[in-house]
Amino acid sequence: MKDKNISDQLQNSVEQAIQTKTKLIIKAGGSKDFYGRTAIGKELNISEHQGIISYEPSELFITVRAGTLLKDIESVLAENNQMLAFEPPAFGDKATIGGTIACNLSGPRRAYSGAARDFVLGTKIINGQAEVLSFGGEVMKNVAGYDVSRLITGAMGTLGVLLEVSLKVVPKPETEITLVHQLNIDEALLKMHQWSTQSIPITASCYHQNQLTIRLSGTEKYINTLQHLIGGEVLTDADSFWHSVKEQSHHFFDSKKPLWRLSVASNSEITSQNDDTFYEWGGALRWIKTNTSQNETPHPLNGHISLFRSPTKINDTFQPLPKHLLQIHRNLKQAFDPHGIFNIGRMYQQF
Amino acid sequence: MSQNSAEHDFPVVDLQQLVKQLSSILADDSILYQEEDIRPYECDGLSAYQQLPLVVALPDTIEQVQKILQLCNKINLPVVARGAGTGLSGGALPYEKGLLLSLGKFNKVIEINQQLQTATVQPGVRNLAISEAVSHLGLYYAPDPSSQIACSIGGNVAENSGGVHSLKYGLTVHNIQQLKIVTIDGELITLGGTGLDSPGYDLLALMTGSEGMLGIIVEVTVKLLPKPKYVQTLLAAFDDVVNAGQAVANIISAGIIPAGLEMMDKLAIQAAEDFVHAGYPLDAEAILICELDGIEDEVTEQVAAIHTILKQSSAIEVRIAKDEQERIVFWKGRKNAFPAVGRLSPDYYCMDGTIPRKRLPQVLQAMEDLSKTYNLAVANVFHAGDGNLHPLILYDASKGQLEKAEELGGKILELCIEVGGTITGEHGVGMEKLNQMCVQFKAAELSQFHALKAAFDPKGLLNPGKAIPTLHRCAELGAMHVHDGKLPHPELERF
Question: How much is the pTM?
Answer without folding.
Answer: 0.95
